[in-house]
Amino acid sequence: MSTGAVPKRLWLVGCGNMAGAMLARWIESGTVAAEAVDVVNRHDRALPVGVRQARTLPAGPPPDLVMLGMKPQQLDEVAATHGARIADAPILVSILSGADEAALAARFPGPAIVRAMPNLPVALGKGVVALNAHAASPAARDTVAALMAPLGLVEWIDDDALYGAAGMLEGCGPAFLFRFIDALAKAGEALGIPADQAARLALATVEGSAAMAAIADAPPATLADRVASPGGSTRQGLNVLDRDDALVRLLTETLAASERRGREMAEEARR
Predict the structure, then answer these.
(1) What angle do the packed helices 233-242 and 246-270 form, to 10 degrees?
(2) What is this structure's pTM?
(3) How far apart are CA 111 and CA 85, in angstroms?
(4) In 29-91, which ranges are continuous DSSP H helix?
(5) Are strands 65-68 and 52-54 parallel, antiparallel or unpaired?
(6) Cα–Cα–Cα angle for 253, 255, 258, nearest 5°?
(7) How is residue 230 annotated by DSSP?
(8) Contact present, 66 and 86 (Cβ < 8 Å)
(9) I need a labelling partner for 213 at 20 to 30 A (CA). Which of 47, 109, 180, 253 fits?
(10) What residues are paired with 92 via a beta bridge?
């Protein structure tokens, strides 16, 4: 495979919600042909037309790339059942939270290993994929980056600790943002806005504001100050969020809790 070439044949071992979202986007964008993908699942699930799925990996030569998309708790089971076949592939991509490169290499010796941490908006091509690899060649890294490009922003993070932290920010971030949208709607309800209308207003406000921030000539903190007139209603609200860095402290505590659990899961995977 040439440097930077998108893999032509893929095996997906496990196809949970995240792996399914990535697969759907690859096929929708024309990055990968559905007929070139084989999925191994415990049970059949809805997949794009043309994708093959079975309980075992197909016979024949290995694919260009294998991706692990099952639950992290199934790592040892997959290694015992499919490890020898997976080890024949040139590249192994893992989206398993908590499974570090050493844990993967011990179970699947042979392939170049790249860890990937995507978030759910990859289904729209608006996601984030953090990548981490130490032993993978530049060609392998370029191949994985080319595969991930249609999913959204792709960032290489070589420091393991920072990779874990970044994974918590972008991987868990959508859930936290969804919670914020819900909280904004509930705050509107508290002011007397009907629940369904408050939900629509909150969602559209966040959607439009995020789109604006993405193309703005200034960071979000500056945009917030531009919206707020001195002594106005927006400024009074920002004063609540900014008091003693209340919002920053809350989100820092939130991400720290997620990161701690990520480290615990990594330790469990090493055993």
Answers:
(1) 40
(2) 0.87
(3) 11
(4) 75-86
(5) unpaired
(6) 110
(7) T
(8) yes
(9) 253
(10) 66, 113
Alpha helices in 6-89 (DSSP H): 17-28, 75-86
> CA–CA separation, 198 vs 204, rounded Å?
10
Two tokens, residue 137: 């060649």
> In angstroms, what CA-CA distances link 65 with 135, 144, 179, 186, 221?
16, 9, 35, 45, 41
Q: Output the six-digit token pair for 151.
A: 């999913």
Strand arrangement of the beta sheet that strand 37-40 belongs to: 52-54, 37-40, 10-13, 65-68, 91-94, 112-118, 127-132, 152-156
Strand partners, 118: 129
Average confidence score pLDDT of the chain = 93
Express each pLDDT in 58-98 by its tens digit: 999 999 999 999 988 899 999 999 999 999 999 999 999 88
H or E stretch at 73: none
The two structure tokens encoding residue 263: 């480290």
How does strand 37-40 pair with strand 52-54? parallel
SS3 state at 27: helix
Give the confidence band of 1 by pLDDT, cuts at 50, 70, 90: very low
Tell me the two tokens of residue 67: 């991706």
Report the length, in residues, of the chain.
Answer: 271
